[in-house]
Design brief:
CATH topology of the largest domain: Uridine Diphospho-n-acetylenolpyruvylglucosamine Reductase, domain 3
Pfam families: FAD_binding_4, MurB_C
Distance between the termini: 24 Å
Strand content: 25-35%
Strand order of the largest sheet: 6-7-14-10-11
CATH architecture of the largest domain: 2-Layer Sandwich
Number of domains: 3
Number of helices: 8
Enzyme class: oxidoreductase
Keywords: Cell cycle, Cell division, Cell shape, Cell wall biogenesis/degradation, Cytoplasm, FAD, Flavoprotein, NADP, Oxidoreductase, Peptidoglycan synthesis
EC number: 1.3.1.98
Bound molecules: flavin-adenine dinucleotide
Number of strands: 19
CATH class of the largest domain: Alpha Beta
Helix content: 25-40%
Cofactor: FAD
């Protein structure tokens, strides 16, 4: 099916889309090639219809939340980017000892943290300052040394390509450091999380502390995708890259941050290629010096 026909169909369904969207409009790195079209479904029904339609027509697609852990290669993507950014909604139920939160996957994670401050959700500070959406956070098991989103998960509502949506309980899932056993083609629609209650003041203080730590240790003034590599067991990728003398290394418009060596920043006009080549340099140097193979944390899509 030609793109024009696909778009006509989307229009007919009332689903919003934009043509030829560059990577800088979809990702926090502010770089990368164009996607043929980005689609912005606003409710679960639209997402489920869209996925079934794309599968049936054999149209290439990928999905994203906030694009804060994503690189789109310079050659772009010839199909559709399904953005969940408009799939929003956050609700909660108070119990004497705990709070159950129900959230649609495109909801910004910061809104969950804000709710956590208001209601005193114990442990929510471990998610403070992580950009992106709740769905993206679950897909990545995002977190900090203090904890990760998987610690609070009760259930997800998820759709696999070509199938009907289904609920998966936390006991069906496994979470480890920046990893889940959910296949990458599973799209998270909604999540239910449960937090124990504590004093809102305590949570507010802990969140404030986390944000201060981040501002000190991370290059937040520049576009990036956060840490580009996962930390190897018992070590830190940033420490190893630093010991290889690569802190501050520039390549095209990209640079290994002088503040945090596991961050690559876009100093202006960086191409995806600049970032990927810097990542290769860092991996090679760390492997040569320490015989440790760094695994990318950032997800990469597209061609060229
Ligand atoms: C300044 C900065 C600081 C950061 N700090 C941290 C940190 O402290 N800890 C941390 O863990 N991460 C951190 N990150 C990385 C990033 O913010 C997290 O990984 C975040 O959870 C990604 O969410 P997202 O919505 O932006 O996902 P995206 O980047 O849009 O997508 C990432 C992956 O998740 C998949 N995905 C997105 N939405 C869904 C969905 N609904 N269902 C299924 N899969 C989905 C995508 O297909 C993609 O493979 C940081 C990033 C930046 C820029």
């Amino acid at each position: 099916m030609r793109l024009k026909k696909i778009l006509k169909k989307l229009r007919g369904e009332g689903i919003t889309f934009e043509l030829d969207l560059p990577g800088r409009r979809l990702t926090s790195f502010r770089l990368g090639g164009e996607v043929a079209a980005a689609v912005f479904p606003r409710n679960i029904k639209e997402v489920v219809w869209l996925l079934a339609f794309l599968e049936q027509e054999g149209i290439p697609y990928f999905f994203l939340g906030g694009g804060t852990n994503l690189i789109i290669k310079d050659g772009g993507f010839p199909g559709l980017a399904v953005s969940l950014r408009d799939l929003r909604g956050l609700d909660f139920q108070l119990e004497p000892e705990s709070v159950t939160v129900s959230v649609l996957s495109g909801e910004p994670l910061r809104n969950l943290v804000s709710l956590g401050i208001k209601l005193g959700l114990r442990g929510v500070e471990s998610l403070a300052g992580i950009p992106g959406t709740v769905g993206g956070a679950i897909a990545m098991n995002a977190g900090t040394p203090e904890g990760a989103i998987g610690d609070f998960l009760e259930e997800i509502f998820v759709v696999f390509p070509g199938a009907s949506p289904l609920k998966l309980k936390a006991r069906d899932l496994s979470f480890s450091y920046r990893k889940t056993n959910l296949p990458q083609e599973a799209l998270i629609l909604q999540a239910t999380l449960r937090f124990l209650r504590t004093s809102p003041l305590q949570v507010a203080q802990a969140v404030g502390e986390m944000c201060r730590k981040r501002a000190k240790s991370q290059p937040l003034r520049y576009p990036s995708a956060g840490c580009v590599f996962k930390n190897p067991p018992e070590d830190s990728a940033g420490r190893l890259i630093d010991l290889c003398g690569l802190k501050g290394k520039r390549h095209g418009g990209a640079q290994i941050s002088t503040r945090h060596a596991n961050f690559i920043i876009n100093r202006g006009g960086a191409r995806a290629r600049d970032v990927l080549e810097l990542m290769d340099m860092a991996r090679e140097a760390v492997f040569k010096k320490f015989a440790i193979c760094l695994e990318p944390e950032v997800r990469i899509v597209g061609q060229g």
